[in-house]
Design brief:
heterodimer; A: mainly beta; four-stranded antiparallel β-sheet; 11 strands; globular; B: mainly beta; about 50% strand
Chain lengths: ~120, ~110
């Protein structure tokens, strides 16, 4: 059974940093691209960042490019999101999501974690 | 980026009736080399993460009831629930993966 468990969310001041983790199990982690998708309170879904299964290719939304860094550790089956220079508008539930395909790019997501809440406020 | 626009924003349908949600992309998501539409649909129930329903515009994900179907090509797509059940109350999102991933704004489906 595929499981994705996010951690690392919390309250942080504007300008601060936070690192999210997503522990994956139940599938061959290195074969699938992974993404972070966020959802601001009461709002819709916004794709944030993605990484190929090998870790060799990374992708970012314009809204976070240069501030967030996605990475993965295939030996630990874990996905990360380093978030720097956080803003109030980054407040959201952050979901880890697994790509169904084994292509190197980001397609669509067949499994999602339960999410971790990031609140940026002074 | 490709902008995805769903209509309507909210919808109320009687139990057993058909529900139709539309999704329009600002540019075609049909990849000519493989004739595939890079379009997926998700269902999100209150307090839960999204669930994949449809991919490649019309391929139903394993385990999804066959009352859910997807259609369309190019820039115009539709998610149809043929006979609405109480458990289908949710927000539905379309997503394109032709280029940088973008989602529609969501359509809230309720029981009339």
């Amino acid at each position: 059974e595929v499981q994705l468990v996010e951690s690392g969310g919390g309250l942080v001041q504007p300008g601060g940093s936070l690192r999210l983790s997503c522990a994956a199990s139940g599938f061959t982690f290195s074969s699938h691209a992974m993404s972070w998708v966020r959802q601001a309170p009461g709002k819709g879904l916004e794709w944030v960042s993605g990484i190929s299964g090998s870790g060799g290719s990374t992708y970012y939304a314009d809204s976070v490019n240069g501030r967030f860094t996605i990475s993965s550790d295939n030996s630990k089956n874990t996905l990360y999101l380093q978030m720097n220079s956080l803003r109030a508008e980054d407040t959201a539930v952050y979901y880890c999501a697994k790509d169904q395909t084994v292509a190197g790019t980001i397609y669509y997501f067949d499994h999602w974690g339960q999410g971790t809440l990031v609140t940026v406020s002074s | 980026d490709i902008v995805m626009t769903q209509s309507p924003d909210s919808l109320a349908v009687s139990l057993g009736e058909r529900a139709t949600i539309n999704c329009k992309s600002s540019q075609s998501v049909l990849y000519s080399s493989n004739n595939k539409n890079y379009l997926a649909w998700y269902q999100q129930k209150s307090g839960q993460p999204p669930k994949l329903l449809i991919y490649w515009a019309s391929t139903r994900e394993s385990g999804v009831p066959d009352r859910f179907s997807g259609s369309g090509s190019g820039t115009d797509f539709t998610l149809t629930i043929s006979s609405l059940q109480a458990e289908d109350v949710a927000v539905y999102y379309c997503q394109q993966y032709y280029s940088t991933i973008t989602f529609g704004q969501g359509t809230r489906l309720e029981i009339k």
